[in-house]
Amino acid sequence: MQDDTQGAIQHVVVPSAKDLGGFEVRRALPAIAKQMVGPFIFFDHFGPAEFLTGTGIDVRPHPHIGLSTVTYLIEGEILHRDSLGSVQPIRPGEVNLMTAGKGIVHSERTGAEVRAQGHRLYGLQTWLALPRELEETAPAFVHYGRDVMPVVEGEGKVVRLIAGSLFGTSSPVETATETIYADISLEDGARLPIAVDYEERCIYILQGIIEIAGDRFEAGRMLILRPGDTLTATAEGAARVILLGGAAMDGPRQIWWNFVSSSKDRIEAAKADWREGRFEAVPGETEFIPLPENR
User: Fold this and answer.
1) Which of 63, 112, 164, 233 is an S-S bond match for 192, by CB 3.0 to 4.6 Å?
2) How far is residue 94's CA from residue 72's CA, in Å, rounded to a whole number?
3) How far is CA 3 from CA 31, 211, 240, in A?
């Protein structure tokens, strides 16, 4: 769902919410008004969720093509496994960047040690569409530890930079196209200037309320900003927002289930490959998610 607005805000997207048995996921992209913001074609906000002892998430092995996934946690832990043989827990402040390219399979689960105790899970998963010339690149996986991720503090702001450059610092995360992605905590009254360094930008409000040009916006809204406008967001009380975007992509994309491509035929080929078992398997996994035949 989205509302048109005037001034610096081009659209306000209200994410669709899905309850996965006490675990809520809110999806803001793709939206009807805007398929992508820069390279971001998919934006999921999950949690915060409480899990009882012995429970957790079990996202069985599933395939991707034509994109990179970025997993970023605020609380909790997820165990990533993929068909390259990667086995990597991700924890708060770390970044998992998985490039599917011509094809990769991965699972996301709660590890045994975490599952053995009560725990919380809260975070974001985004997909970055790959430029056409890299859609069939070799798959890859890179993990960035918390100690290498930049944090900028001052004037009532704590900026955790996930990708791109902001406030005089740059993230080590390497993306295929120009990208900005930042997790920003604001004290009451703190001001967040948003320049036009990136062609397409949006703000997702995780917590609290922000004010822009006299308009107030509450948590759970994605504000797609008008290109070329410089603006300032001010926190009403403590707030936490995600700033993301980048260079406009080289044309629209087809998106079906977990597949992204500039070609409908390539999507059909990926569907056939998964149905016929031609993707590489994830070592140590015996389950998988079947191809959705009703999509």
Assistant:
1) 233
2) 6
3) 11, 17, 22
Give per-residue pLDDT as tens, 259-291.
999 999 999 999 999 999 999 999 999 999 999
Ramachandran quadrant class, 246 (left: phi over 0; alpha: psi -120 to 50; beta: rest): left
Beta strands of 178-253 (E only): which ranges?
Answer: 179-186, 191-194, 200-212, 215-218, 222-225, 231-246
DSSP state at residue 281: P
Encoding tokens for residue 270?
Answer: 């990926």
Which has the closest alpha carbon to 6: 213, 181, 183?
A: 213
pTM of the full structure: 0.95
pLDDT for 21 beyond 90: no
Q: Are 238 and 185 in contact (CB under 8 A)?
A: yes
- Give the residue among 67, 243, 187 at the shortest CA–CA distance from 139: 67
Terminal Cα distance for the chain, rounded: 20
